[in-house]
Every structure is written in C-alpha cells, then in structure tokens.
C-alpha cells in the first residue's frame, strides 16, 4: 500500500498546529482547483473531511489557463485525529481532488503527525555546600644569606731549569763468533741386487707321425642278370601246358 512504501522511505510530518503543506504541479487546464480534501488515520478504512487552508486557483469546474505550474496546497488535520496506520503505527493519509467534469483529478499523500514534545528533564539537584578550604599559611620571609668568598687561586710556580748531565758513550757490541760448518759427505749409491739366473725350459718331446690309413677296397660289382625265357604265345603255348 501507499503508506507502507512511504513509511520505509521516511514520512513527511505535519506542522505543530496539525497542518499539511503540499505542492500541486498542474499539468494541463483541467488540473486546476479548487480542491477538496479528506484524511484517514487508519490506512484508508475510514475518512474525515479536512479543511483546506490554502487552495489551488481555478474556476468552479477545476479549469484554468495555467499549465506546467506549481501551486501550494495546505490542509488542516481534523481535531483529535491520531495517526495509527503504517508499520510504525504513526501514519495518516490525505486525499485531495478537484471537481472537473473530465476527472476528478488529484492525488494522495502519506504523512505522520508531529510527535509530542518530550517532557522536560527534571532540574538537577542543588549540589551540597562545600566547606571553605582552610587558608593557606603565609609564606615565610626569606632569610638573607651572605655568600662565602671564593677561595683564592693558587699561584703558579715555574719549575727550575735542570742542567743536562754528561752522556756516557755506547760501546758497540762485539759480533758473535759462528763456528764453520763442515760440508756433508756425499751419499753412497746403493749396490744393485744380483739378478737370479733363470733355467731354460726343457724342449717338448717329439711326437711320432701318425700311420697313414689304407684306402678302402672298392665294392664288388654285381653280375648282370640273365633275362628269363619268354613263353610262346598261341597254340604252342597251350600244348605245352597240356
């Protein structure tokens, strides 16, 4: 609903005297005044007539020559009205319409009544009397102090000059005697070790030649076969058989 969206966005409030001050933007000629307004404190369930304290100019039929122009429109809340709609329970609806034959044209707006002024805070209790602080003792008069004289600086005594004594001559030290060193005898080369004679190897014994193999005898040739006698054919053969 209208008052739900308006409540979440933050509601405008009426003045301390309960007046709603609005601005009407007239678009064309039949959007002029005068306007009649009523209000609802319960979200549009019931309505009460409200007095228009400042109206939009116009003829009786809601016509004028003004176009695209803003005009103030102020409405007074009915006596004793308490806004109780909306999610926070503090919203009212105002509805204004003109009387043009093509309309009516108008609009609705959601507002909240001015909250009651908070009760004044109780005056703070008067603080308990504070006992006066004891007077500070008078400062003691300063006692003049004569500074002690500074000790005199000791006189500087210059040392008496001392005559230089004779210097004994320095005897040079005798050079140290170094015994001659005999040259080392040359090293004697070691005698080579005698070689051990190696006995010659014994010759291998001669082998007898292998005996020659005799040639194998040639195989005997077979005797030619004798052809068998052919039997006569015909009558002679039969006779012989008988």
From TrEMBL:
UniProt xrefs under Pfam families: Egh16-like
Q: Where is the composition biased (Low complexity)?
A: 219-242
- Which stretches does the entry tag as region Disordered? 121-140, 198-242
Top-rank taxon of the source lineage equals Eukaryota
Q: Composition bias, kind Pro residues: at what positions? A: 198-218
Name of the protein this chain belongs to: DUF3129 family protein
Tell me the organism: Rhizoctonia solani AG-3 Rhs1AP
